[in-house]
Design goal:
Chain lengths: 357, 528
């Protein structure tokens, strides 16, 4: 058990941005919101999975919608607790713990806003170990935990509680409500008992994000290589260091898709890497051969600063290093690959293991 | 006949251009009192060329005054921020992410910043977020008036999509606060991203009084030199704004320095695609031009600790300039520099400090000061130190290039005498008038228009939407004073919003054209 103070969220947000694999939204506004909430209400307690009682009621708190929208229409700050209370009313029980649905990006910060306001502790773990775009792409789904009942709240105070026949339906209905509510909402869902967390969550990912953010910050401060610091912390493989020489985006089937071509520099001169992305970086081909795929993490970092490069921020001329980082092994089971393997995202390839170091 | 002027922290450079020909150029020290230095620079180029002041058709000035005022937290006006967006955004009020020192600088005499959260604003598709509450705005205005604040920044959620809420609020605030209050509206300042756009708008409002003074000083300098031609200021993207716009949008000048020197380099070399190395007294700034415009940096520009979403040129700075201190034994050059005191400290000027400029003179690359004073330097050591400079500059250029294809390099700036060649780059040029490239960049600037907002792109309508955005950008350039027929679209970027099905796409189009001097009176009438 430990307390999180506002300053620590700087490192956590930096690390969460890297674990967002190009998506998940810029944690900046979420971090400011969480810091304001902690300043107003006091520090947030973070507990390890082992410390959660077996009969605890653990609720995942997250944001849904377009991150670009939340950077413009900044949340009211009340959405998370509004959603949580609506879920509690529907269940007739009170939550005892909160947890992030994904450690990657903006959603790493969102539970801290509700935790500061309610005094509930946050569990050190998450349901993905990275960022994914859809509500059903969560590890608790593999052990039978359902996303619904799911409560959705907007900035105006509207709430909606969904009871659905499958996680896929929860995603579909919540997504369309989200668009109607202004493309930026908060969700309370994926209710778990304390004794389900070991099998349902990736443990200690908040600690990982904070240590990752600190490693990058400290490397920068002493003019060491921040990308090497990140790779070391994550056990990641450097796939290429180079420059973005072409970015192509298109919309197909209602989703934004794109490819970026990178030309190697320094030790990688002469090599190329083609990056396929949707909301996150999902596939990497080096010199024409697939070498990394979702659900493994493909992290694109600014070579000089170690800052994550998002799919929306990919631009001609950026100097980047691409890291492949192994995902939680449960994602590589048949059920995990059905949810978030390359074929789900429309790529005609199976998952391939990352190359050796 | 145009005069271009770059007012930097150390030097004021001026050039007189007749079409494509540089008739005269001058480099003189910047004076603390603005008018005198600029008048002297104008008089010098007129005298050098023998041109009458009445023959000048336009004067373009690039200035660092406004960005320096923010960096030094000096001469900022007390400023209120009114945001329309409740119930959204309540948790993060305006200026929440500012350094305390700057927040205090725009709130003098106030116990806390004058910020007002009000209803109004829009959703991503332009529909109403919440109805504007006129009574709420009148109460805010009364409080602003009671605090004696005369500059107000107004921001509304999604104002880049629809400016209606900001415009209506501005009407109400102007009616309550009287005609001499200054209102900065965020949709005229920045792009999507509320906090950084709002930050830039507050900075703009805080600089407004200074802008009036500086513009008056510049127009006074022109009058002092007998010039009746109109004055323009350079903006971040290398385009121009007229005096009236400059008075109300000073924040748009923030990154004009590097932009002007790169555009000047393109003009002098005749290259639209090249790397530019601008060597000053203390640093060398390396950038890349594509299509005649600087490549822009990714991410948000942080200025004096304030996040803004301006697009600024992607520049890598290296601590090597004409005034850099040299250790011949290592050899090492920079990052410490004698800076503006080159003419007293360098060996060739009779000083006691070995500088990079001394190396260039010793190697016979430049005739500056007294070459006899560096004749004693060991030739091999001088050559080795100059090689060291070339290698480090070449590394920096290499980091900026985006392909292995050969890329020409243009060296400009007073310190570019250090460069004769760069290893790995076959084509390195130092064009005539390289020392005043920034003033040239100001003189040749064009007029631009931009569109940057979220468009709904239904299936099969992409081409039509892009055409609509292009036409809007071209019309904006023409409204800003570009000659119809000369306006070309120079940049199109479309980014579908992530995690959002349905084709909402952020489209950015930039168009530029030649300044139409014949339409100036008409433009002024249109504004009056």
């Amino acid at each position: 058990m430990r307390e999180i103070k506002p300053e620590q969220l700087d490192d956590l947000a930096r690390g969460a941005g890297i674990l967002g694999t190009g998506g998940g939204g810029d944690p900046y506004v979420g971090k400011l919101l969480a810091q304001q909430a902690i300043r107003a209400h006091g520090p947030v307690t973070v507990v390890d999975i082992d410390e959660v009682p077996a009969d605890a009621m653990v609720v995942a708190i997250s944001g849904m919608g377009a991150p670009t929208v939340s950077l413009e229409k900044i949340p009211a700050g009340t959405e998370e607790v509004t959603a949580l209370r609506a879920l509690e009313r529907a269940l007739g029980r009170r939550a005892t713990h909160l947890v992030p649905i994904e450690v990657g990006g903006l959603n790493s910060m969102v539970p801290f806003i509700a935790a500061a306001q309610t005094g509930l502790p946050v569990v050190d773990g998450d349901a993905m170990g990275r960022a994914f775009p859809e509500a059903q792409m969560v590890l608790p789904g593999l052990i039978g935990v359902t996303v619904a009942p799911m409560a959705v709240a907007d900035d105006k105070g509207n709430t909606l509680v969904l009871d659905t026949v499958s996680n896929l339906w929860a995603e579909r209905l919540a997504r369309s409500a989200c668009v109607e509510m202004g493309c930026s909402v908060s969700c309370a869902d994926t209710v778990m008992r304390g004794d389900q967390l070991r099998d349902g969550l990736v443990p200690a990912t908040l600690t990982l994000a904070e240590e990752l953010g600190r490693a990058v910050r400290e490397a920068r401060a002493v003019h060491a290589d921040p990308v090497a610091a990140a790779a070391g912390m994550l056990g990641g493989v450097r796939l290429l260091t180079g420059k973005v020489v072409d970015v192509e985006r298109r919309t197909s089937g209602g989703f934004a898709r794109g490819e970026a071509r990178l030309a190697g520099t320094a030790g990688d001169t002469g090599r190329t890497l083609e990056l396929s992305f949707q909301n996150e970086h999902l596939l990497a081909r080096r010199d024409g051969t697939v070498i990394a795929t979702t659900p493994d993490l493909i992290c694109v970092l600014d070579t000089d600063t170690g800052d994550p490069v998002t799919t929306e921020g990919l631009r001609y001329g950026l100097r980047v290093t691409v890291l492949g980082v192994p995902c939680d092994p449960r994602w590589l089971t048949p059920g995990g690959l059905d949810l978030a393997g390359p074929r789900y995202f429309g790529y005609d390839t199976d998952h391939v293991p990352l190359p050796p170091h | 006949m145009r005069i271009g002027i770059d007012v930097g922290g150390t030097n004021t450079d001026a050039v007189l251009l007749d079409g494509d020909t540089v008739l005269a150029s001058v480099k003189s020290p910047t004076t603390p009192e603005v008018t005198g230095g600029v008048t002297a620079a104008i008089r010098a180029v007129l005298a050098d060329s023998g041109i009458a002041p009445t023959a000048v058709t336009a004067v373009m000035i690039g200035t660092t005054h406004f960005v320096n005022a923010l960096v030094e937290a000096d001469r900022l006006a007390p400023t209120a921020a009114v945001r329309l967006g409740l119930p959204a955004g309540a948790a993060l009020p305006p200026m929440v992410d500012w350094p305390a020192r700057l927040r205090a600088a725009v709130s003098p005499g106030l116990s806390e910043p004058a910020v007002y959260l009000c209803h109004g604003g829009h959703e991503y598709d332009g529909s109403a977020l919440s109805p504007l509450d006129e009574g709420e705005l009148r109460r805010a205005a009364a409080d602003i008036a009671a605090r004696g604040v005369r500059s107000v920044a107004v921001s509304a959620v999604f104002s880049p999509v629809s400016a209606d809420a900001e415009l209506r609020a501005a009407e109400i605030l102007a009616a309550e606060l009287g005609p001499d209050v200054h209102l900065s509206l965020s949709h005229e300042i920045g792009r999507v991203g509320l906090l950084p756009r709002e930050n830039a708008t507050v900075v703009n409002a805080a600089l407004r009084e200074l802008a009036v003074d500086i513009v008056a000083a510049f127009t006074g300098a022109l009058a002092g030199a007998g010039i009746t031609a109109p004055l323009f200021l350079s903006q971040n993207d290398g385009t121009l704004m007229d005096v009236e716009h400059a008075r109300t949008h000073p924040v748009a000048t923030f990154a004009s320095g590097p932009t002007n020197s790169m555009r000047g380099a393109a003009y002098l070399s005749g290259l639209a695609d090249c790397a530019v190395v601008d060597v000053g007294g203390t640093t060398a700034d390396v950038g890349v031009l594509t299509g005649g415009f600087p490549r822009e940096a990714s991410g948000e520009a942080e200025l004096a600790g304030v996040r803004t979403n301006f697009r600024i040129p992607d520049v890598l700075s290296l601590g090597i300039g004409g005034g850099s201190l040299v250790d011949l034994d290592a050899p090492s050059v920079g990052p410490r520099s004698v800076g503006y005191r080159l003419t007293e400290r360098a060996l060739v000027f009779g000083g006691d400090t070995l500088t990079a400029t001394d190396l260039a003179v010793a190697a016979g690359r430049a005739e500056i000061g007294d070459p006899a004073r560096v004749a004693h330097l060991d030739r091999a050591a001088v050559a080795a130190a100059l090689d060291h400079i070339a290698v480090r500059l070449a590394e920096t250029v290499d980091r900026m290039r985006t392909s292995a294809d050969p890329i020409p390099v243009v060296a400009v700036g007073g310190g570019s005498v250090l460069i004769t060649g760069l290893p790995g780059f076959a084509d390195v040029r130092r064009p005539a008038h390289h020392a005043v490239a920034n003033a040239i960049g100001a003189a040749i600037a064009q007029v631009g228009g931009e569109v940057d907002r979220v468009f709904q792109v239904p299936e099969g309508r992409r081409a039509a939407v892009l055409e609509e955005a292009r036409a809007e950008a071209v019309a904006a350039a023409e409204r800003a004073g570009a000659r119809p027929g000369t306006v070309a679209v120079v940049d199109v970027e479309e980014v579908p919003l992530a995690y959002l099905p349905g084709g909402a796409t952020r489209v950015r189009v930039k168009a530029v054209g030649d300044l139409d001097l014949t339409r100036l009176p008409a433009l002024e009438d249109a504004r009056a």
